[in-house]
Amino acid sequence: MKLNKVYLQNPDSVTQLLMKEMDRFGIKGTSVALIHEGEISYQKALGVKNPEGDPITEDTLNESASLTKTVFGTMVMRMVQEGKIDLDQPIMEVFKGQPWSEDPRFLTITPRHCLCHSCGMPNWQAKPIDINFDPGSKFSYSGEGYFLLQHMIEQEEGKDLTQLLKEYFLKPLAMERATATWTPEVYAAFSCGYNKEGEVVKIRDRRRTEGNAPEPCAAWSLYGNAFEMVKFQLHIIRDHGGLNEETFAEMCRPQNWATDEIPWGLGWGLTKKDPGILWHWGDNEGFENLSLLDWKTGDALVIYTNSDRGSAFWNAVASELTDAPMEDIAPFVKVSE
C-alpha cells in the first residue's frame, strides 16, 4: 500500500478532501494522520465534538473501539516473545476461574484462537457462552475471545489491562492522552458520539462497569485519537512493535480466512492482494474508525470519527488517499460483527 503522491505533494488538498467528505457524509468531527515512508506527513483535527460547537483538537478523545485489539494483540505477541504466553496452550490450563461456557470445547480455546477469531464464541453474549463451532476450524469475529485472553493475562501478571498497555506501549511511545479505562480526565476531553441522523447518542461521563464487556476491555476500551494512534503505527512500521523477525512474521501470517480476500493474523486484519498491509476498523455506537498501515512501504493512514457514518467516510477517504484494496475491506466490515 502506498499513499497517493498527488495528495502528498499538497497537504492542503488532504484537508480539502476531508472537509468535502465530512460534508457529504454528515461527519461532525474527525482526526486524521498519515505516515509516508516511516515519517508522519500529515495530522489534522476537524469539526466539533459536542452540540455546543467546541472544536475537535489533538487533545479530544474518542472511543478507539476495536482498534484496541491491534494494540492488545501486539502486546500479546510481545509476551509470547518473552516466554510468558504459549499461543497454543489452552487458556483454561492457565486461567484460574470457572469456565465461561458449559460446552466442553471451551476448554480447548487457545490464545491463537482468540487473536485470529477462531475461538467459536459469539461476539458478545451473557454467560454461559455458546460455542458455535470447533475452535480453530473457521472464522467468526469475537470480542469475547479477546476479553477471555485479557482475563488470563491480567491474572498471570497481577495487573489490569490499563497498567499493561501503559507499560508496553502508552508510556514508551508517549501516548500520554490514551488510556484503556475511563477517568475524569477522559470525560473532560471526550467527544460526544453521533448517530447517522447527526443526533448525540453517547456522552461518556462514567466508567462502564455493566454489560458483557466492562472496561478495561481488550476488545474496545482504549480512549484515543489519530494523534495518539499514529505513534503506535509508527512503532509497528519502524520497530515491528518491539517484535523480533520471527514473532512479527507470525503475527502477520494468515492464521484464518474471514473471506476469500481477507485473511486474519494475530490481532490484525490482513489482505490477500497486499501482504504488507495490517489493518483494523473500530465500530462502537457513535464512533467509527480505521487503522491502515503497510509495514513494507512505511505508509499508513488512521482516521477517527465521532459518527455512525464514519465507516462510509473512512472508506471514501482511504480509497482516495491510498491504493489499499478497500473494495475488499469495506464490504467485509459491513457484515463482520
Secondary structure layout plus pairing:
Elements: H1 5-8, H2 11-25, E1 29-36, E2 39-47, E3 62-63, H3 68-81, H4 111-115, H5 143-157, H6 161-170, H7 184-189, E4 193-194, E5 200-202, E6 223-224, H8 226-239, H9 245-252, E7 256-257, E8 263-264, E9 277-284, E10 287-294, E11 299-305, H10 310-321, H11 326-336
Antiparallel strand pairs: 1-2, 1-11, 3-6, 4-5, 7-8, 9-10, 10-11
> What is the H-and-E element order?
HHEEEHHHHHEEEHHEEEEEHH
Number of strands: 11
Beta-strand portion reads 15-25%
Distance between the termini: 25 Å
**Radius of gyration, Cα only, in angstroms?**
19 Å
Structural class: alpha+beta
General shape: globular
Reported for the largest beta sheet, the result is: 5 strands, antiparallel
Assign the CATH class: Alpha Beta
The mean pLDDT is: 97
What is the number of independent domains? 1
CATH topology: Beta-lactamase
Strand order of the largest sheet: 2-1-11-10-9
CATH architectural name: 3-Layer(aba) Sandwich
Helix content estimate: 25-40%
Q: Unreliable runs, pLDDT <50, ≥5 residues?
A: none
Q: CATH homologous superfamily, by name?
A: DD-peptidase/beta-lactamase superfamily
Helix run count? 11
